[in-house]
Design a protein that fits this description.
The chain crosses the membrane at residues 7-37, 49-69, 109-127, 223-242, 254-271. With 273 residues, the protein is mainly alpha-helical. The chain is built from ten helices and two strands. The protein has one domain (2-272). The chain has helices spanning 2-20, 25-35, 47-71, 77-98, 103-123, 155-172, 177-188, 192-216, 222-245, 249-272, and strands spanning 137-142, 148-153.
Length: 273
Amino acid sequence: MEWIVLVFIGLFAGALGALAGLGGGVIIVPALLFFGGMSFFTGEMTPQIAVGTSLVIMIFTGLSSTLSYLKRGTVDYKSGLLFFAGSGPGGIVGAWINKGLDMDSFTLYFGFFMIFISIILMVRNKLKPFPFAQKGKKRSFQDADGNTYEYHIQPVIAIASAFIVGLTSGLFGIGGGSLMVPAMILLFLFPPHVAVATSMFMIFLSAIVSSVTHIAFGNVDWLYALALIPGAWLGAKLGAYLNSRLQSDSLVMVLRIILILVGAQLIYQGLVG
């Protein structure tokens, strides 16, 4: 029963993560915290283990969806590596901060963060690019269909924003795409489908750094990880396929509602102890 639940958690998280460019950690971490307290789950579940295990899964989710997006020619490698220069160190700092959080503190902060993510998802299509979005180093990108896109990147702002995303990733065990995708669109005028694909590439790289840090701290339950990986791998491929075929607005709306409800529950749990 335990393994069946974990496989389905991985499948659901991988599909939604790749579809919306989130990475899937916003599903895996609260699911592990919730099911970890049930009788059919063996072993102790702490915030550190939930986060560390989730980040190991983010490696496979990020790799699977990145490979799918590479076939479609929508990954901007150069920009992804620039963002990784910030998200990698940020992930290490986030993992270090995570060490000092107990269950009540973590659930409280993570609950507020999930509600914040849901608000970002709610308004990201309505926000206008910042005035400086057309300044900086000009970059052009041609996708597999022959469409050419132009946008501008300021390296300092790119690395700084990615550092914040990496920090939240290492702290909460999420991929960081919920913040990175709108940042890429608003700050640098990335086309949405290129932003999602490039975000998953960055998530793959930064998850390696963050998870290695958590592994060094002993924060990974390898049995849970082995059960989650197959579902997450298949789910990420499904999500990447759906991203190129479907309008994801209705599914993202469902995700917003889920994040708000789960976030509220986590906040309540953190307050009452």
